[in-house]
Design brief:
heterodimer, A: alpha/beta, five-stranded mixed β-sheet, 41% helix, globular, B: 278 residues
C-alpha cells in the first residue's frame, strides 16, 4: 500500500517548525490560509501572520517590504494566484528588487481537479522560470517538501515552491537529501533517461518498472529544482543514455521539457520526448480522470521512452 | 539609541527654498542630458521631497543602510530625476553623477532600483510602492522600531487598483507608522486626470479607506513640513497628504503641459528653463 501525504500538509507543518526556531519568519496569506495550511503557523504566531485578503498584488508587495526590513516572508496562496495574477508585482517588487521572498503555492496543476480550468495552474512554471534570479522548486512528495521548505528559508533570494492539493504518494528513497539545484537519480538505467518533476516522479518510477519488464533499463531522475537547472546531471544523463523523456504536470511550453530542451539542444542533442499538457485547458473532473485525459500517466511515459529509444536506434543506424 | 540621534540637520524653510532651485535645475539638466525622462512630475514633487529629506526624514546619507532610518518610497517611479537630485543634494552621491542619468554605465536608472544608494525599492510599474511600504511598516512595528515609512504616489497612479488594496490593508492592519503623499498635479501621461480617469472625490476615497486626509499646497515648504511632521506622530492614524501641485512647476512652458510628462527639454528649452528657474 502506497502512503500518500499532501505536500501542502508538509508545508504547513514545516513552516510552523521553522517559525518556532526563527523569529524572522513571517507568513503572508491571501484568504486561502486554511487550504494552504498556513493557518498552522498563524494560530501559533498571530503577530507574524498577515492575511491580506483576496488581494494578491498587494500581498506580494507587502512580502517585498517585509523582506526589505530583514524578515523572511513566506507568501502563500494557490498557484494561479501566486504566479499569474500578481506577476508584475513579483517581477518588479520581488525579482528586480532581489527580495528575499519565498512564494509557496499549493493547488498547482490539473490535479486541483473539479474547480476547473481557471483553478488549474499549468502556466506557473513558465512564468516563474522566466524571472531573473528566482529559484523554482517542485518537490516530488511530502518528504522532499519538508526539506525544501527548510532549504528555501535558509537561502538568500526569491524562491517559488510549487505544491499540490491532493495527497500524493511518497516516492523519495530512504535517506534522500534534497539540495537546491541538484537533480537526483532515483533509479539507475542505461537505455533512456526520464527526467521528471513533482507528481510525475512517482509515475516515472512506475513507468521504469513497467519498462524493466520489457528489459528496457530506464534511468529516473528527480528534477525538483527547475531553476537553476542541474545542467551537469541532465547532460551527463543524456550522454550516458542517448535518449531523454521529460515528464511534468504543466504546459509543454515553458516548463521542464522546454528548459531541458534548451540545454540539450545547445550541448547534447539527443532524441527527446516531452510528456506534458499540450496546448489545452482542462475541464472539471477528478484528478485521476484529468491526468488520464491529458496523458499524464506511467503508460504514456513508458510509450514516450520507447519512442525516443527507437529514434536513437534509427539515427545510429543511419550513421 | 533613538533614531533621532542619526537625523540630518533640519533646514529652515528659507534654506530649503534655495535647495529647491538647485534641484529644479538638476531635473531639467539631467533629463536634457539624457535626452529622455520625466521632468513634469519631477518638478511638481520638488517641495515634497525637499521637505522630506531636509526636515522630516531621519536618515544618514553617509550610511544609507542604517537600519533605523525612515524609509521613503517613490512609488511614482518614473520621477527619478527629483529623487536623484534630492539624494545628491543630501549627500548620497556626488551631484556630478546626475549627468550620467539613464546612461548605460550609470547607477541612476530610468526608474527606481534599490541598488542605487538611498533608493529603497524598485518601481516603474505604477501602483506597487504603497504595498511595499505597508510591508516595511509591518516589519518595523514587529521589531518595535521607530522608523516611519513615507510613500509618494502620483495622482494618475491612483487609477491602479493595487493602491486601494494597499490603502485598505494599511487601515486593516492598524498601521500608524506610514504616511502617503499624493502628488495631485492633475495630469497623467496622456492628459488631465479628470479626462483620463476621474479620481474625484479623491480625499473622500482616502477617508473611506480609513485615512486621515490633509489637503495642502504642495509647493509651500512650510505647509509640507507641517503636514509631514504631523503625520509622523504615532497617533493611531494613517495620514494621507494630498499635495496640490502644478505639473512642470517652475518652468512656464512645462507647467500644466502633459507634453512634458515624459519628454526631456531640448537644448533651447533647457536654456529657457534654466533662465526661468534662476
Amino acid at each position: 500500500m502506497v502512503t500518500k501525504v499532501a505536500t501542502r500538509q508538509a508545508f504547513g507543518e514545516t513552516l510552523l517548525e521553522l517559525g518556532r526556531s526563527n523569529p524572522d519568519i513571517v507568513v503572508i496569506g491571501g484568504d486561502l490560509n486554511k487550504s494552504t495550511m498556513a493557518t498552522m503557523f498563524g494560530a501559533e504566531f498571530p503577530d507574524r501572520f498577515f492575511d491580506c485578503g483576496a488581494a494578491e498584488q498587494n500581498m506580494m508587495g507587502i512580502a517585498s517590504g517585509l523582506a526589505a526590513v530583514g524578515k523572511i516572508p513566506f507568501a502563500s496562496t494557490f498557484a494561479v494566484f501566486g504566479s499569474g495574477r500578481p506577476f508584475d508585482q513579483i517581477r518588479i517588487s520581488i525579482a528586480q528588487a532581489r527580495a528575499n521572498v519565498k512564494i509557496v503555492v499549493t493547488h498547482a496543476g490539473i490535479i486541483t481537479g473539479p474547480d476547473g480550468m481557471s483553478a488549474h495552474g499549468i502556466e506557473d512554471l513558465a512564468l516563474m522560470c522566466s524571472l531573473v534570479g528566482f529559484t523554482v522548486v517542485v518537490p516530488a512528495d511530502a518528504e522532499e517538501t519538508t526539506q525544501a521548505v527548510r532549504a528555501l528559508a535558509e537561502m538568500e533570494g526569491p524562491c517559488y515552491l510549487r505544491l499540490s492539493r491532493p495527497a500524493t504518494p511518497l516516492v523519495c528513497p530512504e535517506g534522500y537529501e534534497f539540495k537546491i539545484g541538484k537533480a537526483e537519480v532515483f533509479r539507475p538505467g542505461t537505455d533512456v533517461t526520464i527526467l521528471a518533476t513533482g507528481i510525475m516522479v512517482g509515475m516515472a518510477l512506475e513507468a521504469a518498472e513497467a519498462l524493466a519488464r520489457e528489459s528496457i533499463k530506464a534511468r529516473v531522475v528527480n528534477v525538483s529544482t527547475l531553476k537553476p537547472l542541474d545542467r551537469e546531471t541532465v547532460l551527463q544523463c543524456a550522454r550516458d543514455t542517448g535518449a531523454v523523456v521529460t515528464a511534468e504536470e504543466h504546459l509543454k511550453h515553458g516548463g521542464l521539457g522546454s528548459i531541458v530542451a534548451e540545454v540539450l539542444g545547445e550541448h547534447c542533442p539527443v532524441p527527446l520526448s516531452m510528456v506534458a499538457i499540450d496546448e489545452v485547458y482542462s475541464p472539471s473532473g477528478e484528478a485521476e480522470q484529468l491526468l488520464k485525459l491529458r496523458g499524464l500517466t506511467p503508460e504514456q511515459i513508458a510509450q514516450a521512452a520507447k519512442s525516443v529509444i527507437r529514434r536513437k536506434a534509427g539515427s545510429n543506424g543511419r550513421g | 539609541m533613538t533614531n533621532g540621534q542619526r537625523a540630518c540637520t533640519k533646514l529652515s524653510v528659507e534654506e530649503m527654498s534655495g535647495l529647491t532651485r538647485a534641484i529644479r535645475r538638476h531635473i531639467v539638466e539631467m533629463t536634457a542630458a539624457a535626452g529622455s525622462g520625466h521632468p513634469g512630475g519631477s518638478l511638481s514633487a520638488v517641495e515634497i521631497l525637499t521637505a522630506l529629506y531636509f526636515n522630516v526624514l531621519r536618515h544618514d546619507p553617509q550610511n544609507p543602510e542604517w537600519p533605523g532610518r525612515d524609509r521613503f518610497i517613490l512609488s511614482k517611479g518614473h520621477c527619478t530625476p527629483v529623487l536623484y537630485s534630492t539624494l545628491a543634494e543630501a549627500g548620497y552621491f556626488p551631484v556630478e553623477e546626475l549627468a550620467t542619468f539613464r546612461k548605460v554605465d550609470s547607477r541612476l536608472h530610468g526608474h527606481c532600483h534599490n541598488s542605487t544608494p538611498g533608493v529603497e525599492h524598485c518601481s516603474g510599474s505604477l501602483g506597487q510602492g504603497l504595498s511595499v511600504g505597508v510591508g516595511m511598516a509591518l516589519g518595523g512595528r514587529l521589531d518595535g522600531s521607530e522608523h516611519n515609512v513615507y510613500v509618494l504616489v502620483g495622482d494618475g497612479e491612483c487609477d491602479e487598483g493595487q493602491i486601494w488594496e494597499a490603502a485598505m490593508a494599511t487601515s486593516h492592519f492598524g498601521l500608524d507608522n506610514i504616511t502617503v503623499v499624493v502628488d495631485r498635479n492633475g495630469i497623467q501621461n496622456d492628459r488631465w486626470t479628470h479626462e483620463a480617469m476621474n479620481l474625484e472625490p479623491l480625499p473622500d476615497k482616502w477617508r473611506a479607506f480609513g485615512w486621515d486626509v490633509h489637503e495642502v499646497d504642495g509647493h509651500d515648504l512650510g505647509e509640507m513640513v507641517g503636514a509631514l511632521s504631523n503625520a509622523s506622530e504615532r497617533d493611531g492614524k494613517r495620514h494621507a497628504i494630498i499635495a496640490k501641485t502644478v505639473k512642470g512647476k517652475g518652468v512656464s512652458f512645462m507647467e500644466n503641459n502633459p507634453g512634458f510628462h515624459g519628454k526631456a527639454p531640448n537644448a533651447d528649452e533647457l536654456k529657457l528653463a534654466l533662465e526661468e528657474i534662476g
